[in-house]
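User: Predict the complex with calcium ion.
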Amino acid sequence: MSQRTKKNSDRRRTINRGRQASADRTMVGMAQTHTDAQNTNRQDVLHHHADWLGRTVFYEVYPQSFADSNADGIGDLPGLTEKLGYIRDLGCTGVWINPCFDSPFRDAGYDISDYLRVAPRYGTNEDLVRLFSKAHDLGMHVLLDLVPGHTSDRHPWFRASQKWDPADRQGLSDRYIWTGSAFENGASMPFVAGESDRDGAYITNFFAFQPALNYGYLRQDKPWQQPVDSPAAESTREAIRHIMRFWLSKGCDGFRVDMADSLVKNDDDDKSGTIDTWRRILTPIKQEYPQAAFVSEWGRPWQSLAAGFDMDFYLDWGWVPNGYNLLVRRAKNQLDRTGDESYFTADSDADPTAFLADYLGQYERSKDLGSFSFITCNHDSPRLAPRLTPRELRLAYTLLLTMPGVPYVYYGDEIGMRYRNLPNKEGGYARTGSRTPMQWDGSANAGFSQAPADRLYLPVDPAGDAPNVAAQKDDPDSLLSFMHALIALRHDHDGPSQALRPSADLTIVFAHRGHRPFVYLRSTEQERILVALNPGTEEENVQTALRCKAVTPLLHVGQARCTADKDGYDGPDGYDGPATHDTEGRNGVRIELGPQSMGIFQLD
Ligand SMILES: [Ca+2]
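Assistant: Here is the predicted structure with calcium ion placed in the model:
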C-alpha cells in the first residue's frame, strides 16, 4: 500500500468511523427515544385510572360484622351479597371488603395464612366470585384487601423459611427477613427470636405473629439485609403480583393495600425504595388490568400516587395532629365531648384554617396524580358517633363527600352507628368498638344474625335508641335519608365535566382564623358548586367576591341562604392561608348561615 493510498484509506476509515459514530449516535438517539417512550408509556400506565372510578363512592364492609347468612354468628360473603342492593341504593357503587382470606384471625384476618382461599367462616372462593358477579350486575365494583407487608406466622411460606436445613426451605429462605443468628437482633426493626429451628431472628411488621415479607433494604447495614433489586425481593414482588392476578382474573376490581408504605426497610424519608417497589409491582398489573383500581393505606399522597396508586386515604393521625383529625377527631376521649376541639363539634370554637394548612399542600402536590380520599371512618378508627351528634355528623359528612377525591363511607356510619368501649376481639383492642354488627332493624340481633346473641362475633349495640336501617329508611329526617340525598346530589354532579367529580377544582372562598364558617367552591369550566358550612352555634354571614347571575339551592341543613348581594360589607373575606382565591371586590355572593348549618348551591 502506497503512502497516498494509506492516507486515503485512513481518511476513509476516519470517514467511516465518523459515519459509524453518527450511526451510533442515531441508534443511541433512537434507543433513548424508545426508552423515553417506554418511560412515558410506563408513567401513563401507572397514572391511568379506571374509567368507573370518577363516579364512585366507596362503602367499606367489615365482613365478619355485616350480615350473617347461616346463623353461625359471623357475617359472611353470601350475607354481604344479599345486601349489595342496600349499598347500591345508598348510592355507593364501590365496595371495599376487609380481608376475607384464610387466617388464624389473631389480627382479624390481617394475618393471612392463604391469600388464595376465602376463609371458611366467610364462605368459599365460589361465593366470592358470585359476589363479584352480582356486584357487576348492579353496576358496582369490588376491592379486596391486599396485605403485602407480612403474613401470618402460620403461612406455609413462613413455615418453610423457619426450617433449620436450607434444603428444606422450598426456595423460601429469603421470603422473610432473617438475621444472621438467633442471637442477632433486628438492627432497629422489631424482631422475634427463639421461635424457630432456623438459626436466626425474624423481622416483624406489626404484631409478633406477623413476620415481614422481604422486599429488600434501601440501605444495607448488615450482611442479611438484601437490596431492593435482589432476586429474593423480586421473588416476593412476583408472589404479590400472582395474588393480584389470581383475584383480578376471577372478577375482583382492584385492591385496598394494607400498610402500603412499609415494604422496603431502611427506606429514605422520600420512600424512594418503597415507591420503586410499587412501580415494579403495579406497572405490569395495570397493563394487564387497566380497569382495576388501587387505594393505599399510606397517608402521603404525593408518594403513594407517584408509586402508581389511584387513591390514598386521608387517615386519622392524632399524634401530629393532621387535618382529618382536626376536622372530626380532635378529642382526648372518643366517647366524651369534654375538651373536644374538633372543627365539627358545635362548641369547639375551632376554625378550618388548621385543617387547610395540613390539607392544601398535600392536595396541591398530588391532585394531578390521583385521589386523596376522605373517609367517614374505618375499621382502625373510633366511629364519630356518639361523640358527634347526628346534626354534627350531617355537617361533617357534607365536607367529606364534597371535597376533591373519591370518598369512602364506613359501614353503619350512614345511620350513625356508635363507637363502643368493648374488650379486645381478635387483636382489635381499642379498634374493636368500631367493628360491631351492622344494625339492620329492631328484631333480635338488630337483624344481623339468627344465631343466639351470645354466639355473635361481637355484641350488638344494646342501647334502646341504637340506630337501625329499617327505622331510618322511611323517615325523611333521618341521617340515612340525608346521606342518601347527599350521595345522590354528588352523583347528579360527578359526570366528566361536573363540579363534584373527584378531580374538579377546589377554591377556598372563606376560611379565617377565629371564624367558624368554611366556604369552598368546586368547579369545572362548565359548572360551579358552592359548599358553605357553619358548625358553630351562632348565626354567621359571609360576604364573598364570587360573581354569579343565579343561585340554585341544592341541599341544606338548618338555615342556609345564598344570594348575589351588592351591599357593602366590613367583615373579613377570602382565606388567610396559602390558597389562591378571587380577590376582585367584596360585593359578590352573600351567604347567611344559621347555627349548625350547611348549604350546597349551584352558581350560574
Ligand atoms: Ca355466617
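Residues 178 and 235 are 16 Å apart (CA to CA).
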